Amino acid sequence: MKNRIFILIGPPGAGKGTQAKNMASLKDFVLISTGDLLRENVGKKTELGNTAKSYMDKGELVPTDLVARMIKANIEQNIGKNGFLFDGFPRDLAQNTLLSDMLEEFNLDIDKVIYIDVKDEVIFERLTNRRICPKCKRVYHMRYNPPKNDELCDDCKVSLIVRDDDKIDVIKKRLEVYHKLTQPLVDYYEESGKITKINGERAPKEVEAEIIANM
Ligand code: AP5
Q1: Distance 17 CA to ligand 1 centre (A)
Q2: Residue 202 appears among annotated catalytic residues
Q3: Would residue 138 show up in a list of annotated catalytic residues for this protein?
Q4: Can you give the residue range of the structural domain that contains 181?
Q5: With left for phi above 0 and alpha for psi between -120 and 50, is residue 54 left, alpha or beta?
Q6: pTM value?
Q7: How many domains does the chain have?
Q8: What was the pLDDT predicted at 150?
Q9: Which of 29, 52, 98, 177 lies at a CB distance of 3.0 to 4.6 Å from 83, suitable for a disulfide?
Q10: Residue 92: which CATH number?
């Protein structure tokens, strides 16, 4: 079956990025991660990136029209492939309507939503200990998934960095935004019967196994 549409949703630090690459490669889906696409634009200092950065650094959502352009271009480029896995989009009910409208143009609909559930206390511990390789973007956790050698990427051997939005105040704001805007979308998906809730407070391999069993 072609053009299947999967969504990965959950609070900041739930492990979406950790799981998304595997999920996409397993199903041969095109992975669309809005956070990664926005950070790529920030890194390249594009007009979109410069505007997005001012919102991301405060833990707020980037205006939907900016995100929508990136998503639409990606869908158009990849239509006809096995399917899409969206990580970090839609983020609220308005973005869900936007995605539904875009999919309708291609006679498509959302097949499944995978919700990774993690409590706020756990999220703080995860995000304050997260490190990223600036080159290959590999994600580490200094306790649960540390690099082999000090704070260097195992693959690129460059120094790991802390994401700009992983500061305590920004994490708090991101969680506030999640509860206010994204949680109602999770509730909506629950009513639609398309959501599978996964307990994200287990080892990454256990979370991965349950996701795969439900894909
Ligand atoms: P985005 O990049 O999407 O950030 P997020 O949703 O806040 O999620 P994170 O990337 O922080 O966490 P994650 O769930 O991927 O966790 P990870 O796997 O890294 O968005 C960033 C910003 O961009 C937003 O704030 C907004 O400004 C903007 N944006 C993005 N999309 C947008 C949209 N659609 N509309 C508007 N604005 C948008 O894991 C976290 C840590 O935990 C890591 O250290 C990892 O190693 C560790 N870990 C993972 N799994 C486990 C586990 N099972 N056990 C223990 N540790 C684990």
Answers
A1: 6
A2: no
A3: no
A4: 4-119+175-213
A5: alpha
A6: 0.95
A7: 1
A8: 83
A9: 29
A10: 3.40.50.300
